[in-house]
Structure prediction request, 776 residues.
Amino acid sequence: MNIARYKPLLPMAIIYAVLIVIGLTVPGMWQPIAYFMFYVALGQAFNIFLGLTGYVDFGYVAFLGLGAYGMALAIKNFGHLGLIAIPIGVLLALTMSILLSLAVGAVALRLRGAYFAIATIGVNEGFRYLLEGVRLWGGTEGIVLSGFMRKAFGREMTNFLSTFVSDVLVFIIAFAAAVITITILNRKMGYALLALREDEDAARVMGINVTKYKIMAFITSAGFAGLIGAIAWTLKLTYVFPEDVFNIHYTVEAIVIVMLGGAGTLLGPMVGGLLYGIMKYYLSVVFPGIQLLILAPLLIITIVAFPEGVVGYVKRKAQNTRLSEYLR
Amino acid sequence: MRKGWMFLVAGLLVMALLFAGCAQQQEKPAATPTPTPEKTAPEEKKEAQVETLYFGAPISLTGKFSKEGQMSLWGMQVAAKWINEVHGGLKVGDKVYKVEIKYYDDQSNKEVVQSIIERLAVQDGVKFVLAPYSSGLTLAAAPIAEKYGVLMNSHGGASDYIFEQGYYYVVQTLSPASKYQTGFLDMVKAIDPEAKRVAMVYEDTEFSRSVFSAAKKHAEELGFEVVFDKTYPKGVQDLSPILNELKATNPDIIIGGGHFADGQLLVSQLADLKINVKAISILVAPALPKFYDALGTRAEGIAAPAQWEVGVKYSPEAAEKLGVDYFGPTQDEFMQMFKEISGSDEPPSYHAAEAAAAVLSYAYAIEKAQSLDPDKVREAMNDIEFMCLYGLWKIDPETGKQVGHEMVIIQWQGGTKKIIWPPEAANAEPYYPIPTWEEKAQGKLAVK
Prediction:
């Protein structure tokens, strides 16, 4: 293993450390930072698929939703065993989202470009209507856990879990997704995905098993989405409603974040997530009511100014300098 | 080309700095909005000093609840204006506080709500928060409010389950979902003890389900017989199969609905299938003026529950009769102040009235408790009962759920929306039984 190739993780670790320090020391900044990190983690996870393969999955939030339900079901059913319910929930969330990604991937990944995007939109909506129609897992009434968690884990513990532990775990998920991204980039899989992103037919002709690598990236990305759903949704908000969690809005936000930061780069989702989260938060605090009118042009300007994303642009500028080792 | 980009980057940076600057500037004056009286009041000055007390609010000014959010904000501002200008500020000890609403836009978004609650509680030092609009957002905000020990008063979260989770600091001002259709059943029982058979047909959503499971229980307690109980999915296009089934059960009254579109469809298909009953109450749809625009005379006699309605009769006299205090602007004052604050001719919706009531309940409780400590105010809330333009206010001490306020029932009579129940709020008699569809088709109105 070549340590030098993991150098780009360093600036990321530093930024996360700074964010954690700000969150812990500046009063009132912990939740906003947790909120920025939700976007960073979402972008980082989505980037593994969208960024590396160039395929746009419009049903991405379905994995997040399923992960959220995995955690909710685990707490509901194993809450009486104590905190062990949470690792069970994490496992369940992973399993459920990966199983769904296998099913979706096996069918939809045979399609390309726009056809893939169209096929995936259905997954999310379909899932929501399935839950509501079959009255599965509480149906439209969802699963509300706050009271139950307070009884099972105690009031203090529940507060601690949903206002601190879940936020720290989101940092860990975001970082883990980054480590996986750079590992993929450094391996044969990364080169295979690069080839397939640039020209799928050419890659196939060169003897690359494109379907295999696409599915691998898809499953990894979906697994992380499931974890985000379990931690940043269920554990943090302590309830799940199908209508809220299977909301295509989050997919769109994830796409914006990845594009903003630079699709396929390692640091892109972090930069994109932070930019997006910070703009959204401060605009709503400073200009309540008209912030979307400001946010939209800002996003457009950023995308026009940096067609390859902020990180893509900086990377190109920094080519052949010492800085380039730290940018990926 | 390159230069152009550099300018854009520079521009973005400047804007970012600007925002950061604005944000910080905002923080400074707000850092101690609820100063502890002992520390800040100089010993020499004994006369009443005016200080500002902030009530914090995440408001949905954008996103799917933007309409409701804007109305609630106006309602809160009207209540604050009344407290400051008519009531003369909040008197706590020998100090007088002016009330101001400190709000941020939550974008109807859960993640933003949590950050904003923390910001209000920590950076702005707010002790009294008005909950965000909708049950989901209120539930998302509750753990954060509980963590910082700030009171949160729900004016737009009707679901009962919020108050079944054991949150001590969360109280409710509007009627919970479980009471939406119970007033109508009480009314029918009072007018016509002969009506026994109730049919329920409603949308399969979390909200409607909690409304109708409580309605069913209440109906059975009152001695009604629930002969039909079915849901239809959201976004339904045709209700005739389910309504044919309903017709076969031969009900005396029908309660149902969910949102606007399905409520309207329900009434028009009841008309098509000529299902005649003595009274009909539909959630949400009939309370909106466009319901009558869409259905014309077919809407005659259709009733709906509403949290509040322009024209209700809650007044200082009504309060005196019940032996409780009246606090806040009268209906006329409210309408006028609302016009001044909103700057438009749009009449206030119930969202404005319930938000105003939430602010008034804080003010009333703070004066009763003679303290700005959230724990003491919460305790005082357990014992208070008062009336305002929105109706009665009283909570269940255990859960914080609203038990005093009653839903008003409206009925379309001769093309206008009349309030028919409860008697202390009504401005018209109930029209019962309602005209049949055949009579309505010939132009008969629900007017005596």
